[in-house]
Amino acid sequence: MSKRVVITGLGVLSPIGNDIPTFWNNLISGKSGIGPVTRFDASDFPTRIAGEVKGFDPLEYMDRKEARRMDRFVQFAVAASQNALKDAGIEIDREDPDRIGTYIGSGIGGLQTWEDQHRNLIEKGPRRVSPFFIPMMIANMAAGQVSISTGAKGPCSAAISACATGTHSIGDAANIIRRGDADVMIAGGTEATVTPMAFAGFCANQAMSRRNDEPERASRPFDKERDGFVMGEGAGILILESLDHALDRGAEIVAEVIGYGMSGDAYHLTAPAPEGEGAARSMKRALNEAGLKPEDVDYINAHGTSTGPNDKFETIAMKNVFGDHAYRLAVSSTKSMTGHLLGAAGGVEAIATALALKEKILPPTINYEYPDPDCDLDYIPNEARRVNVNVALSNSLGFGGHNATIALKAYDGAE
What digits encode the pLDDT tens for the residues 165-205? Predict the structure, then answer.
């Protein structure tokens, strides 16, 4: 019999807060975390703004030697996982570690490490490349280091599916619990790519906003004046548990994971399939797995990148899936505040969606000023909304045509 899966712990590092209360308060207050790039000199770049994690000290979570052997994206994952476990009240040394797993992905991995070590190779020669270069850089190391640092010995894996990574990780981890291979999974996404090479690449394909003089207004999903996404960094980690395990230990339940859908566009390297056809199939599969009718859904945390094609086609996809109900749905993109956290986006946005269900407050889409005829749904413009929301979806769509959707439900206490 398939097990029910619930969320019992949350850990976040983001441009709008490095703990859950700060993150949530800033989210529902409509506070932007976008500002000038400080991690490198971006003066020669067409885009000079980003959503950076501020005030993060890895030494609060690990010793100096460990920190030096981890790229920033891995440090983020370890820190957010520790916070999520604490939030859930789980001490792995008091549990069966074989029944606790790790599923944390990164869309790109240790790009800063790659840049630093490539510089050593060119300037100083191959003998000066660090022996830790490969294990610091590879994208699966977030899951590996979290497993090592926490002692979780259950299933350990990593999704790597560009901007869909975090949502794939959560959905796959939930399925591991459903089939009985673990009682608890530490799941989500992490990313730290505010680096010269990442900026050069995204600027070259003209994907990022150039609203450098108005950083807090630059990320404007679904708005007619949007001109590209704003890169962010951070980590979003959730503790998933079987309902039985959570109830046995008296855990506080944030929300329930009731469905997961995924699809491939089979269309283009970076552009979404016409009319969001792949995204629509992903949402339909999540609804089918959850046993939901379209009219059961109250809220969608959209992928909503603030790029022209994504926002238009995701809107069409929602209309194709939900029909007339699409106009009664509440939709928002929290990327308007955090920027686009790439592989970490799905994890952070799943946290936002779960908290919206728990607190009955829907976060807004800020910077929504100029309606776009192609984007004509209810995007919760500029101010949070109190509403008795019960079922929500969170969408993530990635380069390569990767689409992922999770369906969450407010936990009603029923066993």
Answer: 999 999 999 999 999 999 999 999 999 999 999 999 999 99
Enter the DSSP assignment of 3.
P
**Distance set, CA 19 to CA 3, 53, 83, 221 (Å):** 30, 11, 8, 25
Query: Do the strands 391-398 and 299-301 form a parallel or antiparallel pair, or are they unpaired?
Result: parallel
409 CA to centre of own chain: 18
- Other CB atoms within a 10 A radius of the CB of residue 297 amount to 26
The amino acid that residue 351 corresponds to is I
Phi and psi at 160, nearest 5°, equal -135, 90
- Give the per-residue pLDDT at 368: 98
Outline where 251-369 has alpha helix (H): 277-290, 308-322, 335-338, 345-359
pLDDT tens figures, 131-163:
999 999 999 999 999 999 999 999 999 999 999
- Asked if 191 and 52 sit in the same domain, the reply is yes
Helix%, strand%, coil% for the chain, nearest 5: 40, 20, 40
Count of the separate structural domains present in the chain: 2
163 in active site: yes
Of the listed 156, 163, 203, 375, which one is catalytic? Answer: 163
The residue type found at 40 is F
Domain boundary residue among 194, 215, 248?
248
- Residue 269 exposed, middle or buried by CB count within 10 Å (0-12, 13-18, 19+): exposed
17 to 32, 154, 345, 349, 350: CA distances (angstroms): 11, 30, 14, 13, 15
Looking at 194, 229, 248, which one is the last position of a domain? 248
